[in-house]
Amino acid sequence: MIRFHKIAASVFGVGFAKGGGTIAAIITCIVWFAAQYNLSTPHVFLQLIGVVVITALGIWNGNRVEKDWGKDSSKVVIDEVAGMAISLVAIPLTWPYMLSALVLFRFFDILKPLYIRRLEKLPGGWGVMADDVLAGIYANVLLQLIVYETWR
C-alpha cells in the first residue's frame, strides 16, 4: 500500500525530477485543458469536486509518505497539482489565462507571502497541502479580478 502512496504523492514519479513542482503544475495545466477542451462551458462544480478529491488524496498520501521521505519532501508534488487546479477553477479556458494562473500560482507557492508559510507548520499531510491550497486560492482570486477587468 505504501507504494501506491508514493506513486500518488510523487504524481507517477514527477516529484523525483529536478523542478518537479513546476513540472507537476505544467502537467496539471495540460491535463486541465485537455479534460475540458470539448466542453461548451466549464463545469465549475466538477472542477471543485476534482480539487476536493485531489486535495483529500494529497492529505492522505502526505501522511503516509512522511515517515519515509520526511516532512513536506520535494518528492511530494500532488500538492502542486491541487494548488494549480485551484488556480484554474472557473477561469476561461485560454492559454494566456492558464499561463497567467501558472505564473501566479508558482509565485505564491515559491515566495509564500500572506500567511502561506505558516500553513506548512500544520502536521502531516495537512501541512503538505494547506500552503499550496492557499497559494492556489490567492492565484485564482487575483486572476478572477484580471478576467473581470479584461471582460468588463
Question: Nutshell version of this structure?
Answer:
This protein has 152 residues and is mainly α. 73% of the residues lie in helices and 0% in strands.
Q: pLDDT under 50 segments (min length 5)?
A: none
Strand content: under 5%
The SS-based structural class is mainly alpha
- Helix run count: 7
| Straight-line N-to-C gap | 51 Å
Count every beta strand, where a strand is a DSSP E run of 2 or more residues: 0
- Envelope shape: globular
Quaternary organization: single chain
Q: What does it look like?
A:
The protein has 152 residues and is an all-alpha fold. It has one domain. It has seven helices and no strands. The protein has helices at 2-9, 20-36, 44-69, 78-88, 95-111, 116-119, 124-151. Helix 2 runs antiparallel to helix 5 (95-111) and helix 3 runs antiparallel to helix 4 (78-88). The chain is globular, with a radius of gyration of 15 Å. The protein starts with a helix and ends with a helix. The model has no long low-confidence stretch (mean pLDDT 94).
From the structure above, extract its key features:
mainly alpha, 152 residues, 0% strand
Task: Write the SSE topology.
Elements: H1 2-9, H2 20-36, H3 44-69, H4 78-88, H5 95-111, H6 116-119, H7 124-151
Helix pairs in contact: 1-3, 2-4, 2-5, 3-4, 3-7, 4-5, 4-7, 5-7
